[in-house]
Amino acid sequence: MATKNKKLSLKDKYQYLTRDMAWEPSYQKKEDIFPYERFEGIKITDWDKWEDPFRLTMDAYWKYQAEKEKKLYAIFDAFAQNNGHQNISDARYVNALKLFLTGVSPLEYGAFQGYAKVGRHFSGAGARVACQMQSIDELRHVQTQIHAMSHYNKHFNGLHDFAHMHDRVWFLSVPKSFFDDARSAGPFEFLTAISFSFEYVLTNLLFVPFMSGAAYNGDMATVTFGFSAQSDEARHMTLGLEVIKFMLEQHEDNVPIVQHWIDKWFWRGYRLLSLVSMMMDYMLPNKVMSWKDAWEVYYEQNGGALFKDLERYGIRPPKYQDEANKGKHHISHQLWSTFYQYSQATNFHTWIPSEAEMNWLSEQYPDTFDKYYRPRFEHWQKQQEQGERFYNNTLPQLCQVCQVPTLFTEPDDPTQLSHRSLVHDGERYHFCSDGCCDIFKHEPEKYIQAWLPVHQIYQGNCEGADVATVVAKYYHINIGQDNFEYLGSPDHRRWQAIKGNKPLGAGDSKDAA
């Protein structure tokens, strides 16, 4: 008697997982079980049209991820046992890791929470499974990132209390507010914000250049977690596109809603990634590519092809795309100038770029760097050489929406600060751009509640009335160790000792921990 092959195909397994395990409720109304599925106005006529191109099932997921974990943690152990931190290009590189750990890693945890929540609110089983898978991915990412960077915490300052700092430090409210905004939106807007705008349109600008930068600077632990996560990110990106197409194909009334969300989250993502522009152009001692080049490759070329494809659904490119394209020549320089001034309130060091680095910036930005930014850095360098290193002893005004300091210039005039304001319900609110002002106008009730760190300090809600007290007591930044100028800092002196260039002083420790 012939025996039937009982092994299911991947397609059959996925079918059972995402269709046949679902059921129609009999004693509760569907709209009561999934109350958030309709209030955003998105119309879903057939959840069975949901397609996951990876058709990933739980057993395949566990097996695949377990293999990656074995290899990843073996490299982490080898990196630590061989004092891998001594092989990086320069200790200035670690400052980029500090910004990544405090600004990006907590977002992975926010994404984990967000997907776990929104998966509960879809009546379609396929969408629920996709959200559950991605939620687990995001939790894995935050764990591996913290593990990879924990080795540096033994040898350099400023990597402690990263979660505490993420919730409180003024510039870290930029990434934090982005995810808080997305997580407090409806489930379909959350997917548009994170799965599409961030994961599909913009994530390559974060992961690919930064991980390549880690490789160029000898940080194999970060490279390994980056490429381990990148295979997950590729799956997330594909799903992000499928999410958008699914909504657009379900009903024509969804098109204007999705377009509005694309406009909003493109601009919010662009503002968030301005921090990455600074990391690439100024914080990596060995540079891979400029922010301008990365923007042209990963947004203008790839994004251009994407929005060409979406034209058939009635979707156009994001409203403020042209302003972002103009900004590629300026934002990294303007942001590094700002952090150079305010590094008394950061958990990382800043410095004037070397002559070789300024020459590289001149080559990368031939129309702007020498004309607008080199003179500024050279002036500050002269001040520093005279013992008058410049610090701005205040804190900057923040945009009510993106929470980036209002430091950027007008898109067509780099000599004029971009500032917008409007009065809502008797109060005046300030913005960095037309993009952020538009977002506020659409949902003022949401953004008037923004927790702006600088406002909170001046209102006396941060354990002190002056910057030094707030930095030490409320931020948990160790003044004189974690912040201020890099040259002469404990990290710099420790690095000199590691390289045998200069002995440590009597009071210096080889370990920062």
Automatic annotation (TrEMBL):
Domain annotation YHS: ranges: 409-451
Keywords: Monooxygenase, Oxidoreductase
Domain of life: Bacteria
Pfam families membership: Phenol_Hydrox, YHS
A GO MF label: monooxygenase activity
Coiled-coil ranges (or none): none
Protein name: Phenol 2-monooxygenase
Lineage: Bacteria, Pseudomonadati, Pseudomonadota, Gammaproteobacteria, Pseudomonadales
